[in-house]
């Protein structure tokens, strides 16, 4: 039976588990990160891990949820919704998301390894995921409100897929070379944003 921890010990151990997970999951992935590695910095036995999290997936989800509100603020509130037009909003969203990929290791990991989020969904309470302030949900609402007006009349899921596809470019752009990555991505973002929006914006 795991030992009882004081409130102060629980806070300290939880913080250490979160810090360790935030370092190991992006570097090694969910499957290859072991419980031994997660608990070692906290100085607890593997069995004691479950007094804090139900599973590795639950720890992974907690890390993701703690970042979700901040990511939404940067890519949706300060990006997408600050655009003067739908096209400008999409440009701002994509540029903010690219910055997030460059500076947020867990977000980058989720983009390049979607199977890890699938593993999390299978092991944790779906209500916890559904309740998250998800940037993709906010993006879907934005696109739905503009579909057929100043956004092309296409399935919103398809439009989101196109936008997500753009975000795979910076993750796999080493072959472009350092001097081409930024200009290629800037042009691609402009082309995609223009292609998804109404020609009415060209006349405005």
UniProtKB/TrEMBL annotation:
What the entry lists under InterPro entries is as follows: Homeodomain-like_sf, HTH_TetR
Keyword field contains Transcription = yes
Superkingdom of this entry's organism? Bacteria
Residue ranges annotated for the HTH tetR-type domain, each copy included? 11-71
Binding region for DNA: 34-53
The UniProt keyword set, sorted, is: DNA-binding, Transcription, Transcription regulation
* Listed PROSITE patterns: HTH_TETR_2
UniProt protein name: TetR/AcrR family transcriptional regulator
User: What organism does the UniProt record list as the source?
Assistant: Saccharopolyspora taberi
The beginning of the lineage is: Bacteria, Bacillati, Actinomycetota, Actinomycetes, Pseudonocardiales
């Amino acid at each position: 039976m795991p030992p009882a921890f004081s409130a102060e010990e629980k806070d300290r151990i939880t913080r250490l588990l979160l810090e360790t997970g935030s370092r190991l999951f992006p570097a090694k992935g969910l499957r290859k990160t072991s419980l031994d590695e997660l608990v070692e910095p906290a100085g607890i036995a593997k069995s004691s891990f479950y007094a804090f999290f139900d599973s590795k997936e639950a720890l992974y989800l907690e890390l993701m949820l703690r970042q979700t509100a901040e990511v939404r603020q940067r890519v949706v509130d300060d990006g997408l919704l600050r655009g003067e037009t739908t096209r400008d909003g999409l440009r701002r969203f994509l540029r903010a998301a690219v910055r997030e990929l460059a500076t947020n290791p867990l977000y980058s990991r989720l983009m390049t390894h979607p199977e890890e989020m699938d593993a999390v969904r299978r092991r944790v309470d779906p209500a916890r995921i559904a309740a998250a302030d998800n940037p993709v949900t906010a993006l879907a609402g934005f696109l739905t409100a503009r579909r057929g007006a100043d956004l092309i009349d296409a399935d919103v899921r398809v439009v989101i897929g196109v936008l997500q596809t753009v975000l795979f470019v910076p993750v796999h752009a080493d072959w472009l070379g350092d001097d081409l990555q930024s200009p290629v991505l800037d042009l691609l973002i402009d082309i995609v944003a223009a292609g998804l929006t109404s020609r009415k914006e060209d006349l405005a």
